[in-house]
């Protein structure tokens, strides 16, 4: 994904670029020392190395990415790391380079906009285990963008997309069409904000989505209905609906992208009857 890339020129003899040039040289010096000593630092560490020079964390982040792009090497080769935001949980154990054994059977799932480490991990799992990768995100523009970053990459890291993206990512849920199909209660739905509408329009204009007509239809449905929903909205049907019914049926019957929740062989009506029963039997403390 290379759309949106730009070139910036910085001259050491230009008064307007002197400060920026000093910032770049400082970070180059830090990177040189890290590589020479075979040690690592986070981008946050670099910022606190000279807060007055850099002014903000965003400045450091941008320069490190620029250096990585300029040298055509991944950021980890510069011995610079980001503070990890992603979490992992599941039947998986692996060894770190220093021999530390990591047990993922106690932990949590990924969260928020994926950082480089999270994307590297998902890519590594895909490359090594040859397993399908599904995305379960909120049915809102922000959730869709998170999924797109895993599948297609981000503009900021477009030069390293071949190492970070997983082209086979499938949209498991929560689909906008699921909200109608499962009759999620209206009080569990949230109206789109102006910012949501702007983000959604921007997503629909992205070139790579032309190859994903099912995704486009889901986003267009969101535009039409003008509502969004969090994954937790399924608890309005039944407290354990997500784990006991939604996910097992999605995974078993192939209900991702725009595919029906269940194949048209009587199973769909069977599920809807079960949903109706769950709503009827819902405890009084469960949202109506």
TrEMBL record:
CDD domains: TOPRIM_TopoIIB_SPO
Primary location group: nucleus
A Pfam family annotated for this UniProt entry: TOP6A-Spo11_Toprim
Protein keywords: DNA-binding, Isomerase, Magnesium, Metal-binding, Nucleus, Topoisomerase
Reaction it catalyzes: ATP-dependent breakage, passage and rejoining of double-stranded DNA
GO molecular-function terms, A-Z: ATP binding; DNA binding; DNA topoisomerase type II (double strand cut, ATP-hydrolyzing) activity; metal ion binding
GO biological process, one term: meiotic DNA double-strand break formation
Superkingdom assignment: Eukaryota
Residue span, Spo11/DNA topoisomerase VI subunit A N-terminal domain: 19-80
Topoisomerase 6 subunit A/Spo11 TOPRIM domain mapped to chain residues: 110-251
GO cellular component, one term: nuclear chromosome
Enzyme class label: isomerase
The keyword Nucleus is annotated on this UniProt entry: yes
Protein's cellular compartments: Nucleus
EC number: 5.6.2.2
Cofactor dependence: Mg(2+)
Active site: 48 (o-(5'-phospho-dna)-tyrosine intermediate)
Region forming the signal peptide: none
Family affiliation: Belongs to the TOP6A family.
PANTHER family membership: MEIOTIC RECOMBINATION PROTEIN SPO11
Name used for this protein in its record: DNA topoisomerase (ATP-hydrolyzing)
């Amino acid at each position: 994904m290379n759309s949106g890339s730009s070139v910036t020129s910085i001259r050491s003899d230009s008064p307007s670029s002197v400060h920026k040039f000093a910032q770049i040289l400082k970070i180059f010096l830090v990177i040189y020392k890290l590589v020479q000593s075979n040690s690592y630092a986070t981008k946050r560490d670099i910022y606190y190395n000279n807060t007055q020079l850099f002014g903000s964390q965003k400045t450091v982040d941008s320069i490190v990415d620029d250096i990585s792009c300029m040298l055509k090497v991944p950021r980890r080769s510069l011995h610079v790391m980001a503070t990890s935001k992603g979490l992992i949980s599941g039947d998986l154990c692996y060894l770190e380079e220093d021999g530390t054994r990591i047990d993922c059977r106690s932990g949590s799932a990924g969260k928020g906009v994926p950082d480089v480490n999270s994307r590297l991990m998902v890519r590594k799992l895909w490359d090594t285990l040859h397993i399908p990768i599904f995305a379960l995100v909120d049915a809102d523009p922000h959730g869709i963008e998170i999924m797109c970053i895993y599948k297609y990459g981000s503009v900021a890291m477009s030069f390293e997309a071949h190492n970070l993206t997983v082209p086979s990512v499938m949209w498991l849920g929560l689909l906008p069409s699921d909200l109608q199909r499962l009759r999620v209660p209206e009080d569990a739905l949230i109206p789109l904000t102006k910012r949501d509408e702007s983000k959604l329009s921007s997503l629909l204009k992205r070139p790579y989505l032309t190859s994903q007509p099912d995704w486009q239809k889901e986003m267009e449905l969101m535009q039409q209905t003008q509502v969004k929903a969090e994954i937790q909205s399924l608890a309005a049907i039944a407290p354990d609906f997500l784990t006991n019914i939604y996910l097992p049926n999605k995974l078993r019957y192939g209900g991702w992208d725009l595919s029906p929740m269940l194949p048209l062989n009587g199973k769909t009506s069977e599920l809807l009857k079960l949903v109706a029963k769950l709503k009827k039997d819902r405890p009084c403390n469960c949202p109506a």
